[in-house]
Amino acid sequence: MTAARMIIVVAVTWVVLTALVLAPSALPASWQYYIYSPASVCLWVLAMLFGPVITVFVNYPVVNVVNDRVCCSSHHWL
């Protein structure tokens, strides 16, 4: 169950990052050169690689808390 939630977190992170990279396409063409520069595309690719890992790491207690309640209700947070 935790793995399924992690997959959902990764998928949502990728959807958000893809939407963020596509959003500037509505801007005038003269701005797109600066927004889609090689540096910004490189940063976006790095975000696509490391963003989901960071998101899962930050949200792991939230992702895992339901499993603790279901399978180990006597478990207490230290």
Key words describing this protein structure:
78 residues; mainly alpha
Description:
The chain is an all-alpha fold and 78 residues long. Helices cover 79% and strands 0% of the residues. It has 3 helices and no strands. It has helices at 2-22, 29-35, 38-71.
Please write out the topology:
Blueprint: H1 2-22, H2 29-35, H3 38-71
Helix pairs in contact: 1-3
Provide a concise account of the structure shown:
With 78 residues, the protein is mostly helical.
Q: Work out the number of β strands.
A: 0
Distance between the termini: 23 Å
Order of helices and strands: HHH
Portion in helices: over 70%
* Number of continuous helical runs: 3
> What is the global morphology?
elongated
Q: Mean pLDDT, as a whole number?
A: 79
The radius of gyration over CA amounts to 18 Å
Tell me the strand percentage band. Answer: under 5%
Taking pLDDT < 50 over at least 5 consecutive residues as the criterion, the unreliable ranges are none
Please give the oligomerization state of what you see.
Answer: single chain
Question: What structural class do you assign from the helix and strand content?
Answer: mainly alpha
Major beta-sheet overview: none
